[in-house]
Amino acid sequence: MKKQRTIGIRYRLFFAFLIAACCVVISMFVVTKVSFERGIFRYVNVIEKERLDTLARALEQAYGEKKQWTFLEHSPAVWMDLVVASRPEHSGHRGRVRLGGLIENHGPELQQEFLPPPPPERDQIFETRVLLLDSNRQLLAGPDEPWPQPPYFLPLKVDLKTVGHLGLIPPRILVDVRMQQFAKEQHRSLIVIALSIAAVAALLFLPLAGRLVRRITALASATTQLASGRFDIRVPVESTDELGQLARDFNRLAQTLERNEELRRRWVADISHELRTPLAVLRGDVEAVQDGIRQLTPQTMDSLHSEILHLSRLVDDLYTLSLADIGALTYRKEHLDLRHLIEQAVQSFQKQFSDHGLSLEYESPPRPLLLFGDAERLRQLATNLLQNTLHYTDPGGILRIVLSKEADHILLRFADSGPGVPEEALTHLFDRLYRVEASRNRAQGGAGLGLALCKSIVEAHGGAISAAHSALGGLEIIITLGTDV
After folding, report:
1. Is the pLDDT confidence value at 87 over 80?
2. In terms of pTM, does the model score above 0.70?
3. Cα gap 67→76, rounded to integer Å
4. Cis (ω within 30 of 0) for the bond into 120?
5. Cα 149 from chain centroid?
């Protein structure tokens, strides 16, 4: 089977530009040609009307001398003499010409000049289109009706009295040889100009199309490399047009993919580390018991059980986050009182805070704060934040929880005392497996998944969560949720 040959985008663009340019050139040629021809006809009409006016003055003078038109009826050659004499270049000439026939009493040069042209131009010359009517509009001289076009008439007046009408039938074509030659030369010039413009356009469009295609080809090549896993690929931004914007968007996409790949690798490494630590402890304790180094005492069982619980919480948190990522984490939302739910969570942690030497304060409005949400997930949110303070706050510290309603939303604040976190760490606290090793390290508890779960729960309820420095010297978590009322 033969491979079908396709035309590249470069030549498609070239032909598209060339066709568009040719259409414009042809349109300009047609418009210019029509405009030029109309201008020529207007010029001819002006010349013929001036000649008609000259003939009218001669006829008025002749009528003034004869006092009637009988001199034309008795001698038709006089009419043609007057018409021929109206020519600007022969205004002083007087001869006798019989219409459509021989020319008498004229020299050879003049006879050759006034010989009627062959058909179909014979009926287009001035001499065959001029006519004379008397005051009653009866034809005295010139072509009989029907006329091919309505004539243009000039009234003939002697002593302010209309004695006749001199008419001229407009021409359909140019009959003057010089005018025809001039028109042909102009048409040839227009054709040469049109072809020259088309050739120049073709020479300009080919490199232009090549430049556009080079930029598109560079983007296509970079896209292929990006699809193969080269996330460090970038394309140069050469302009501010649509292709330049596309290049910038491509670079941002490549940068995002590169960062996501880096986060994925770090995520896998961190998970491996977090799982390996409790498993190593479990393995060491079990092997120590097996080798008889340690006795299977209640204390050993408690240590093993603690590590198992830690490992179980880690796996549960990872599973919950994975469900949130794929949108499979279920929420059973209902109308509930957030004030009462937070109060229950605070009461359940009072003893643990007391055992660790921490104070726990809770402020809330006197009336219920209604919210449409999942009670279990919101309880998990409060529990994670309480445990976060319990694990990381120094003994003798304090956690202040303030629940309030502002405008059309509910504001929940968890502010604890020191230690605090660096400024650059505030934007990363909700990243998975992120811990501020300088102060809130693993030895004090947590795998860095609690705040990531909190963010997932808050966003599932259409809210927002952020971190800031606390006025008490530690960390403040600020949660904004919508309200039903």
Report:
1. no
2. no
3. 17
4. yes
5. 55
